[in-house]
TrEMBL record:
This is Phenylacetate-CoA ligase. Keywords: Ligase. GO terms for molecular function: phenylacetate-CoA ligase activity. PANTHER family: BLR5969 PROTEIN. Its EC number is 6.2.1.30. It comes from the Bacteria. Pfam families: AMP-binding (PF00501), AMP-binding_C_2 (PF14535). Residues 365-457 form the AMP-dependent ligase C-terminal domain. Gene3D superfamilies: 3.30.300.30, N-terminal domain of ligase-like (3.40.50.12780). It is an enzyme of class 6 (ligase). SUPFAM superfamilies: Acetyl-CoA synthetase-like.
Length: 467
């Protein structure tokens, strides 16, 4: 396996020939069972390293009666207790600034990223220079699989802040040898300037969130410019579901006349592109030699069979500063077995990460995921660009409504248009939803992650009155 060592060491001068499909042909195409043997050995190395250097893990495993030497198989590894995000936040509160799961001296932390803290205490990611370079090399590999090459100009369109996504895309493109254009987003009027700069700089690759790409296309059209004329040949995404949701990805691909690639898991387990597409189709590969992924039953936390749905549990195989060992994601996916037919012999998530377990809501006994609603609504002819999902209660019954923007051309047939969407939602969800058409531009557009679910018991009546 090319450049497979612990701690990781990469030849920074290495680069495949531009015509080569694989960055590391052996690592990416070897029989999955053979790779698993190397991964098991690496897991033991990572656990021994954490046992010696990260008090958080030693305490946790002591309490569970687990020692790294007892892990003789990947089945044994399933017995290692999972780590939950709330544990990491609590540990950092007690052991500031980086927690007792920091496995290097604080002086070796050279980069700080983190969460925004909008839903609680922010989590700090302390990253050593070795880990920074490992992430750069890993992301370059995955971006190479997407077909990005040194002669591309890559626009990083998400905020260059504490958000790991922007920096991960930046350093991956930089390591790959491409020209990097870190324009960012988030300032009023910035999107219009983004369009002008894209034309001026000859941008060929876009990175951001699916929501922002759709917003960018709208802004371009408002300025009288066809988004397809911008010259993009590829767009890759992270941060929210969408790039593997057929209706969303098709809207993006058609708008820009370009190929669409999904990627991304969690900032905590960066390189987050370890879930990354290698072809222009829905779904992502699990690059198991970067971050070992288990798709697990959410209750028992044991691996589910291929073909089944579960929540990913992640173990970093190249991180030394804040290793993550069996970190529970809380996301939802379904996986398929590795196939040599794909070229790269990694497990496959055909729909990518399509939701979070805690985003799921129940309406009249049916579990509903927002991404399922997004897929139906965005596929509707005449869809105006945004929508909101409203959960409310009428008397003793929960009700579901979807406010959907419509294009002007649909104004004369709104009743039948809404009824058609409602019928499709009932078929997909197994529960009825009231579809409320609203005028285009009713909802604010986002330059980052879309937030479309509103749970407000009185809001539905106000919305219907306003429409």
């Amino acid at each position: 396996m090319e450049q497979w060592s612990w701690p990781p060491r990469y030849d920074e001068s290495y680069q495949p020939d531009p015509a080569e499909r694989f960055w590391f042909p052996r690592r990416e195409t070897m029989p999955a069972e053979q790779r698993d043997e190397a991964i098991l050995a690496r897991i033991r190395q990572v656990m021994e390293y954490a046992w010696e250097n990260a008090p958080f893990y030693r305490r946790k495993w002591d309490e569970a009666g687990i020692h790294p030497s007892s892990i003789k198989s990947l089945a044994d590894f399933e017995k290692v207790p999972v780590v939950r995000k709330e544990e990491l936040r609590a540990d950092q509160a007690e052991n500031e600034p980086f927690g007792s799961y920091l496995a290097v001296p604080t002086s070796e932390v050279k980069h700080v990223n983190g969460t925004s803290g909008t839903t609680g205490r922010p989590t700090a990611f302390g990253i050593s220079e070795r880990d920074w370079r490992s992430v750069a090399n890993a992301h370059a590999r995955v971006m190479w699989a997407m077909g990005i090459r040194p002669d591309d100009t890559v626009l990083v369109a998400s905020p260059l802040s504490l958000y790991w996504g922007s920096w991960g895309a930046y350093i991956g493109a930089e390591r790959l040898g491409a020209r990097v254009f870190p324009f960012g987003a988030g300032t009023a009027g910035q999107t219009a300037r983004t369009v002008r700069w894209m034309r001026q700089m000859g941008v060929t690759v876009f990175y951001g969130t699916p929501s922002y790409a759709l917003h960018l296309a709208e802004v371009a059209r408002d300025d009288g410019l066809d988004p397809a004329s911008l010259g993009l040949r590829k767009l890759f995404f992270s941060g929210e579901p969408g790039a593997s949701v057929p209706s969303i990805r098709s809207r993006i691909a058609e708008a820009f006349g370009a190929q669409v690639y999904d990627s991304g898991s969690m900032a905590e387990v960066s390189p987050w592109m370890h879930l990354g597409a290698d072809s222009d189709e829905p779904g992502v590969l699990c690059w198991q030699d970067l971050v070992y992924t288990e798709v697990c039953d959410p209750t028992g936390l044991h691996r589910v069979d291929y073909g089944s749905e579960g929540t990913p549990v992640y173990t970093t195989l190249e991180r030394t500063s804040q290793p993550m060992i069996r970190l529970l994601s809380g996301d939802l996916t379904r996986w398929e077995a590795p196939s040599a037919d794909r070229g790269r012999t990694y497990p496959f998530l055909p729909r990518g990460i399509y939701g979070r377990i805690d985003d799921m809501f129940t309406v009249r006994g049916e579990n509903v995921y927002p991404s399922a609603i997004d897929d139906v609504v965005m596929a509707a002819q005449g869809y105006g660009g945004e929508h909101r999902i409203v959960i409310s209660r009428e008397s003793t019954m929960d009700s579901l409504a979807v406010q959907v923007e419509y294009e002007d051309a649909m104004a004369s047939s709104l009743e039948s248009w809404a009824a058609g969407i409602a019928d499709r939602l009932r078929t997909v969800l197994g529960v009825g939803a009231k579809v409320v058409p609203v005028r285009q531009q009713t909802f604010d557009r986002t330059e980052f992650k879309a937030r479309r679910v509103v749970d407000d018991r009185d809001l539905l009546r106000r919305l219907e009155g306003a429409s």
